[in-house]
């Protein structure tokens, strides 16, 4: 989730999870047992660019146990051990690394925002023709302790952090119903493709949020559901049609809602609640042609031809002097109008550089001379829980159950199989 990081705006950061999928898929009617199972997380390279590492270097304060085949070796406290793809230990199969004292393993060969990351549980190394794949296997609740601070600032209100913990846990359980990387038996990776993990260190506040909601998930009609979340709402959330997904009996928990109380929109004073971009016609012409692969020539007009619940744009039509292109769904619309070359002015006057995606699909657009003016609200895909909305609700005394049941229609927050 690059132009905005979660440290800058309080949330997901990177190019946002919605870049990877226009979901949700139909929720499977498949019961998932909730306890504290192990999740297998594929750890990506620096910048989350690749799943294969050219080499791996590890150490641990209490020393390491390195197991391969029927053999095992030990490394002394603080000793660094390196692995290349042709390491002879791979001849016995996968290599599994654990800390002698049960603590964390430092992965010296990658960098994250927190610096050099360390991981609880086991690191499993698999050699491939391209390099080494690293899978971190660890208990789900431990995993969440480094997901929550990576996805929401630890300085946020505890009740908002607890709502985030339940969302992250529910999302993880849905992903654990299958393997995102079946060839490596990994459920997820550690990037915005799924949930960011280990980009920030565990913090006392986020650990508390995980502990105080331990095992709790969101259920709709008895089934654990995928609880999507994003940065900031415009006062309303989007319905599933924003992703081109047809409503069915399993996904009715994701509906457009108003993010407000009797005093008005919770996020009305936040910078991204409203924003505006003034884009030269030539710049927008080039961006639309590049982003859609259709040469429209000089842009004459952009019209929102279909809207959904809450006013989200579902379809736009861009007409140029050479051609016309129609774009459907929020992600593709935001991508069509995104790219470098213009600025976005937030409602507090702060300026952000444009990025690969327009901040949200809640906008209007009109031409003023040689400039197109896009006036919008919110930041992110708009479906599910607004993280800043959750934080503002918590500031007004709402608890995490209040928060989750506002954003997710008719869900129950339950632990275990209760």
From TrEMBL:
<protein>
    <submittedName>
        <fullName>SpoIID/LytB domain-containing protein</fullName>
    </submittedName>
</protein>
<feature type="region of interest" description="Disordered">
    <location>
        <begin position="1"/>
        <end position="28"/>
    </location>
</feature>
<dbReference type="GO" id="GO:0030435">
    <property type="term" value="P:sporulation resulting in formation of a cellular spore"/>
</dbReference>
<feature type="domain" description="Sporulation stage II protein D amidase enhancer LytB N-terminal">
    <location>
        <begin position="130"/>
        <end position="220"/>
    </location>
</feature>
<dbReference type="Pfam" id="PF08486">
    <property type="entry name" value="SpoIID"/>
</dbReference>
<dbReference type="InterPro" id="IPR013486">
    <property type="entry name" value="SpoIID/LytB"/>
</dbReference>
<dbReference type="InterPro" id="IPR013693">
    <property type="entry name" value="SpoIID/LytB_N"/>
</dbReference>
């Amino acid at each position: 989730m690059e132009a905005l990081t979660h440290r800058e705006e309080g949330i997901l950061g990177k190019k946002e999870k919605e870049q990877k999928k226009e979901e949700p898929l139909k929720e499977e009617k498949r019961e998932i047992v909730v306890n504290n199972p192990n999740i297998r997380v594929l750890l990506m390279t620096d910048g989350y660019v690749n799943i294969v590492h050219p080499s791996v270097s590890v150490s641990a304060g209490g020393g390491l146990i390195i197991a391969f085949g029927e053999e095992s070796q030990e490394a002394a406290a603080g000793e660094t051990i390196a692995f290349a793809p042709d390491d002879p230990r791979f001849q016995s199969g996968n290599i599994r690394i654990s800390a002698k004292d049960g603590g964390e393993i430092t992965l010296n060969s990658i960098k994250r925002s927190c610096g050099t990351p360390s991981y609880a549980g086991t690191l499993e190394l698999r050699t491939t023709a391209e390099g080494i794949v690293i899978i971190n296997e660890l208990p789900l609740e431990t995993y969440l302790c480094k997901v929550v601070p990576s996805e929401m600032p630890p300085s946020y209100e505890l009740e908002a952090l607890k709502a985030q913990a339940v969302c992250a846990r529910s999302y993880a359980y849905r992903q654990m119903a299958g393997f995102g990387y079946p060839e490596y038996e990994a459920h997820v990776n550690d990037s915005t493709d799924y949930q960011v993990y280990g980009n920030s260190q565990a913090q006392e506040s986020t650990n508390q949020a995980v502990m105080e909601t331990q095992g709790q998930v969101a259920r709709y009609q008895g089934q654990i559901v995928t609880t999507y979340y994003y940065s900031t709402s415009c006062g309303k959330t989007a319905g599933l049609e924003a992703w081109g997904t047809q409503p069915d009996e399993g996904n009715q928990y994701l509906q457009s809602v108003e993010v407000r109380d009797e005093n008005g929109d919770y996020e009305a004073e936040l910078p991204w609640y409203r924003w505006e971009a003034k884009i030269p016609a030539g710049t927008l012409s080039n961006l639309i042609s590049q982003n859609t692969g259709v040469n429209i020539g000089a842009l004459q007009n952009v019209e929102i031809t279909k809207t959904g619940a809450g006013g989200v744009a579902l379809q736009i039509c861009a007409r140029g002097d050479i051609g016309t292109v129609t774009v459907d769904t929020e992600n593709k619309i935001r991508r069509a109008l995104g790219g470098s070359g213009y600025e976005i002015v937030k409602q507090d006057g702060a300026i952000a550089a444009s990025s690969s995606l327009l901040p949200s699909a809640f906008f209007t657009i009109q031409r003023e001379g040689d400039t197109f003016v896009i006036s919008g609200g919110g930041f992110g895909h708009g479906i599910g829980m607004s993280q800043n909305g959750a934080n503002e609700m918590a500031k007004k005394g709402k608890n995490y159950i209040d928060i989750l049941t506002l954003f997710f229609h008719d869900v129950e927050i339950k632990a275990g199989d209760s």
